[in-house]
Amino acid sequence: MQLRNKKLDMDTFLSERTEVVASWVTGKDVDFEEGVRYQHSLPESKRFSSVLAAADREGRTLRQPRAGVALVDEHIKLLQFLEDACDLLPSTIDAYTRLNHYEKAAEGIARSTAAGTSLLNGFPAVNHGLKECRRVVESLTKPVQVRHGTPDARLLAEITLAAGFTAYEGGGISYNIPYAKKVPLERSLRHWQYCDRLVGFYEERGVRINREPFGPLSGTLVPPFVSHCVAIIEGLLALEQGCKCITLGYGQAGNLVQDIAAIRSLRELANEYFQAAGFTDYQLSTVFHQWMGGFPENEAMAFSVICSGAAAAALAGATKVIVKTPHEASGVPTKEANKQGLEATTQTLNMVREQIFPMSPTLDQEIELIKREVRCVLAKVFELGEGDVAIGTVRAVAAGVLDVPFAPATCNAGKLLPVRDNVGAVRIFDAGRVPLPDDVLTFHRDRVAERAKAEKREASSQMVVDDIYAISKSRLIGRPR
Ligand SMILES: CCC[C@H]1O[C@@H](n2cnc3c(N)ncnc32)[C@H](O)[C@@H]1O
């Protein structure tokens, strides 16, 4: 396997770049030097890294929606409509572009133009190309990030970074395992080394681009240690390629103490692993994603889920919260619904931001538990990779050591089965082949047994199914009827 966690040299990168920019007609418009000049021309108020740094200094939690539509003018109108209600802007990329099906994206643009409304589920940035993407950036006053789900995001990165987007979400694991079925992990990891090296080249020219691995993964009952392991690995891979501004993320699970423990442990563990790997001059921030699972159709109840996530994000001290909308149960939200999600989040953030969630033995126990679990799994990843975390990742996923619950990728073992305990914290029902110490497994087993006793039923996969639907049915824990 030629994959190595080593910084790509210029020759390797440039020879690959020829193929990347030729992979769709709009690639020919990208000129790296011109992109560097344009990035330097942006005011600090439009640079993700500056806004994130200020928020961390001030202890503020920033608001960011997801948003993306097919046509440029509509996308600009959408983001202009949202920008007064948030701190950071997205451009959510459509599903065809995520699969590099640019010809289908082109058809979608044509059909959307004919229909006078967006018929794509996101913004097809590659098809629109550099100038049109730059027109988006020019039309806004806030920093813009590319949010997508692309295993091969090389051309998308070339175009959007040269166009002035100042943050890029994703990674070789987090945009493969939860998003793709049959993309070999080595391939997506290698493609993302290219993306990270490109960010590293911008960094070497004084342009700081924020990199945000996709935290929530399958977004379905993912235990904190699982998403933390992936986030930390992708942070290490990005740092190796010269990225300096890393935001690590986590998806709300629903038990407040566990969610706060997750964000606080994530920051501490990232610093522990980044510094152990010899990196010191990086900028670290965290992002909390409001509930990523099934939502209630009832919009008032959806707002309640949104606000519970906003409260957790602020109490956890997350640098950023990714905001959901009351249309989550139905699909791509209207701009009005998107803005309402932001406004509800703002109200809760404003009411919570001056409050301190006290340390407690329970919170401390959750933080320590997550740290132990992450350290166990990552030790195995490094061992399997004989010190190389990229190789170790591929082998760990193949061995079921890294295992993302409810993920579609065939390379993912899918043996780890989570379930909520009697207070709604996500625990391990079946560890599969994840190497956790016996006392940790006993802790999880005892917590699950408490619930089984309370519900007068055996712990079972039925409990797991009940939990998956619970929040959309206005519960946290999937209790038997
Ligand atoms: C991992 C991201 C999944 C979530 O990302 C949101 N999402 C996806 N596409 C759009 C879009 N075009 N506009 C606004 N939100 C969008 C939905 O919440 C979805 O559950």
So what's the CATH class of the largest domain? Alpha Beta
The hetero molecules present are: the ligand CCC[C@H]1O[C@@H](n2cnc3c(N)ncnc32)[C@H](O)[C@@H]1O
Q: Give the amount of beta strand, in percent.
A: 5-15%
Rounded to an integer in angstroms, the radius of gyration calculated over CA atoms is 21 Å
The side-by-side strand order for the widest beta sheet comes to 1-8-7-6-5-4-3-2
Q: Which overall shape is indicated by the principal axes computed on the Cα atoms?
A: globular
CATH topology of the largest domain: TIM Barrel
Keywords: Cobalamin, Cobalt, Isomerase
Subunit structure: Heterotetramer composed of 2 epsilon subunits (GlmE) and 2 sigma subunits (GlmS). GlmE exists as a homodimer and GlmS as a monomer.
Binding site for L-glutamate: 66, 98, 147-148, 169, 175, 179
Function: Catalyzes the carbon skeleton rearrangement of L-glutamate to L-threo-3-methylaspartate ((2S,3S)-3-methylaspartate).
